[in-house]
# Entry
Amino acid sequence: MSQEVRLSTLVGIAAIASGVSGILMSLSTKRVANFEAIREYFQQGDTPEMIKARHKIYECEKKDVDLDPESATLICSFFHFWGIMVKKGFYHYGFSKALQDHP
# Structure
């Protein structure tokens, strides 16, 4: 009887450990997925279209030229989305610095 109780206790402890490790793995996987999504969105800022749009915005300031509404919309919506991510807690402000330093 004593061995059955010990075996039952061991099985229970193993089940609890397995459940806890499953939860930890799930949280870790979710965190990695969030990081990948943020990194992927951040890299969209380096597409030729975004580079061209930023260039048009900078040229407006330097040469006193009319602002291109399409470029302004593209750039504003990109950075507005970042602001929403910060506000909702999905993105830490220092994260962009880390991504910029990463090759």
Observations:
- The CA atoms of residues 94 and 100 lie 10 Å apart.
- The chain has one domain: 2-101.
